[in-house]
């Protein structure tokens, strides 16, 4: 926040004080900073804390190097269906996948629209039904007992 030339220095100082107080109120405590590894704990020497941080960072680096060395090859990931084998540029792979899914959805919707209805399945004896239902489908009338109320 910059003070304007038209403001008096006392008003400007007051604004800076209020901003500073606000920042100090929202500042993290020393315990929080030590828990996050930003500051050393109170009873630990700073040099010891730095050494611990370096050792942890080295251990993490070694772990990551080991994981990178032992990760499977691309061909193995393709074989396990984790990656897809495409000749497309990586920046276009997401677009290609969306297009492929849209095409599959369209094909599936078309097949669903063309599938036979239940009456056709009954006529072709694919769906089993009772004899009375068959008579009604074939056009013969069938007498049903009256419904009781």
From TrEMBL:
SMART domains: RPEL (SM00707). InterPro entries: Myocardin-like, RPEL_repeat. GO terms for molecular function: actin binding; protein phosphatase inhibitor activity; transcription coactivator activity. Keywords: Actin-binding, Nucleus, Repeat. GO terms for biological process: positive regulation of transcription by RNA polymerase II; smooth muscle cell differentiation. It is found in: Nucleus. Binds PPP1CA and actin. Belongs to the phosphatase and actin regulator family. This is Phosphatase and actin regulator.
């Amino acid at each position: 926040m910059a003070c304007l030339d038209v403001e008096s220095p006392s008003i400007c100082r007051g604004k800076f004080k209020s901003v500073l107080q606000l920042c100090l109120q929202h500042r993290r405590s020393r315990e929080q900073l030590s828990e996050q590894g930003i500051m050393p704990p109170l009873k630990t020497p700073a040099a010891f804390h730095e050494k611990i941080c370096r050792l942890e960072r080295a251990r993490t680096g070694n772990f990551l190097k080991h994981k990178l060395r032992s990760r499977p090859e691309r061909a193995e990931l393709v074989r396990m269906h984790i990656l897809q084998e495409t000749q497309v540029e990586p920046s276009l792979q997401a677009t290609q996948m969306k297009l492929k899914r849209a095409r599959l959805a369209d094909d599936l919707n078309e097949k669903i629209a063309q599938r036979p209805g239940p009456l056709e399945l009954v006529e072709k004896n694919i769906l089993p039904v009772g004899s009375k239902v068959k008579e009604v489908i074939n056009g013969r009338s069938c007498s049903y007992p009256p419904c009781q109320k």
